Each structure stands twice: as structure tokens, then as C-alpha cells.
Amino acid sequence: MQRWIDIKGQQFGFWTVLRFAGTGRFQTASWLCRCRCGARKIVQGNALRSGTSTSCGCSRRKPISHGDCTRGSPFLRLYKVWTSMKRRTRGKVKPSSRAYACYRHVTLCTKWLKYEPFKAWALANGYRQGLFLDRIDSRKGYTPSNCRWVTPAESSAHIRWTPKRLLASRRAQALAAKALSKKVLCLDTGEVFPSIAAAVRKYGSEKTNLRRAIRTGIRLAGMRWEDAA
């Protein structure tokens, strides 16, 4: 005896019911449906009749008129700059993040909420690969009159050096200089080098790799290393 309602041929939202597809675990009828976009999917009958399911999801997806968000696009990096700018100014930076204190009061002009106007401004104002988006006045938001494209060196020079950040930077530089000036011993050959840089020059490795080898005890260039006394 048929215990389910026959809805073959009916439309529910963007779905068109094609045929009966069997019953599920709890004897609920399932139907093979075709969406307006052409996608096919098996949907439960009660989800169709109650309006819970009206499409395959295409109705919620916003069409993208540009292809800059796809891999291989020459403007993929520019698109990522735009999305990063929106994330920082739309309250999506976590309070635990270091960037939270810097961007929690930064605003974004309504014109740049869409990607196309931002791309047009970028191309008209000297954007090219390798440049960074920088705010001229860090107390103001992202607007066409307050933004520019700068090199990495110019971007670093424009950082707001608070006393705490300046002290941390100086401490990091002092520790790095101290680590590089330490004597290094090669355990396999017995050679003692006056610094990490000297050992790197001879064996052609990276300074960071040699520091990691000393810290963890792994072999580098087939040899073991440690700090000399």
C-alpha cells in the first residue's frame, strides 16, 4: 500500500520533482529533483513540502562578475588585499590577535565594499605586484584619499613605533645579533667557527637552518653542531 504523497512533476522553489527515489531510514519518501541551474539531488519529500529545501544552494550564492579570485589570475593578489582589508575593518579580527588593537576602530568607505571600484582605484594609482596597501594617516580609515601603494621598506618605515613595540624590536635584534656572534663547534670535524655566519660561508647553508640544527641536535650537511664554550 502506498503510504507517501505523490509529488512527481511538481515544483517547490527552484526544484522540479523528477521521480520517486525510494524511502529513507524512517520510511520517509525521497525524490530525485532538478534545480533551476541544472543540478540534480535527492531530497526528502517533507523538506520540499515544508519549504526547508528550495534549491541546491545556487540561490544563496552571489554571482561573481570577475575572475580575479581564481588561481592563475594576474590580479589574485589584489583580490586578497581587498578581502584582507574588509576582514580587518568589518569586525572579523579576533580579539586575541595582535592586530585587534590596531584595526578595531579602522573604517572602510562604502564605495570599497565592492571589489570592482577598489580594483579600478588600484590600477589608476600605480598598483603592481609586490606593493603593499598603506594608509597615509594611520588614525583614519581606508578611503581613496588616505591610501597609497608602497614598497615593503616604505611600509615598515610607516609602522607606528609605540614604546612597547620599539623595546620588543630592539630586544629581538639584540638576541639575534648575540645568537649570530656565538662560536660554533662542528662535532664531527672538531672545527670551531667564530660565528654562525662563518660556518654558513664554508658549508653553504642557511643561518636559520644551522641555528635549528644546534637547538634540536639534527644533522646539517651530514654533521652535528653545537654552541662552542
Structure description:
By secondary structure, the protein is an alpha+beta fold. The chain folds into three domains: 61 residues, no CATH class; 82 residues, no CATH class; 53 residues, no CATH class. Helices cover 34% and strands 17% of the residues. It is built from eight helices and nine strands. It has a four-stranded antiparallel β-sheet with strand order 1-2-3-4. It has a three-stranded antiparallel β-sheet with strand order 8-7-9. Strand 1 and strand 2 form a beta hairpin. The longest helix has 19 residues. It is elongated.
Could you outline the blueprint of secondary structure elements for this entry?
Blueprint: E1 11-12, E2 15-23, E3 29-34, E4 40-44, H1 45-50, H2 76-89, H3 100-103, H4 115-124, E5 132-135, E6 147-150, H5 152-157, H6 163-181, E7 184-186, E8 192-193, H7 196-203, H8 207-216, E9 225-227
Give the SSE string.
EEEEHHHHEEHHEEHHE
Helix segment tally: 8
Residue share in helix = 25-40%
Instruction: Name the strands of the widest sheet in spatial order.
Output: 1-2-3-4
* Rg of Cα set: 30 Å
What integer is the average pLDDT?
A: 78
Number of strands: 9
The assigned structural class equals alpha+beta
Main attributes of the structure:
single chain; 229 residues; alpha+beta; 3 domains; four-stranded antiparallel beta sheet; three-stranded antiparallel beta sheet; 8 helices
